Amino acid sequence: MKQDLLKKIRAMLSTQDGLSGQPATDAEINAAEKKLNVRFNEQYVEFIKLFGGAFGGIDIHAFQNGALIGKATVTEMTEKFWGTYADKLPEELVGAVVISDDGSGNPILINTTGEIYIYLHEEDEAELLYDSLEALLTKSFP
After folding, report:
1. What is the set of domains in the chain, with CATH numbers?
2. pLDDT digit string (tens) for 10-65?
3. Which of 47, 96, 129, 141 could lock 111 by a disulfide, CB 3.0 to 4.6 Å apart?
4. 66-82 as b/e, with b when 16 or more CB fall inside 10 Å?
């Protein structure tokens, strides 16, 4: 990600306690990828290695999240999602991991190519929100 964008994120996260967590370690990332049998998108990995579970325009969950983000990990949220919707997943969400939700029960996911989707659980449909995590962050931190 661009350094000026990361600088804006750091500045915003420093304004309030609880918006960022502990940076993710390689061991945490490797363990989660192994458990879920996926490879996390590189922009997501970069973000969580810098900020942990943190606010990025939306709550972005990792392993050790900021207090205002919530305790649920990306692994827990993804396993719950897959357990509930595995037989209904559209192709673009196969291998995607849950990084957030919209507060109404609709998970927000990032797939291996980095696209950010919302899964509308009542309609069983996926809607593309952003082409990448960087696009989400750029819109959130102009």
Report:
1. 3-140 (3.40.1580.10)
2. 999 999 999 999 999 999 999 999 999 999 999 999 999 999 999 999 999 999 99
3. 96
4. beebeebbbbebbeebe
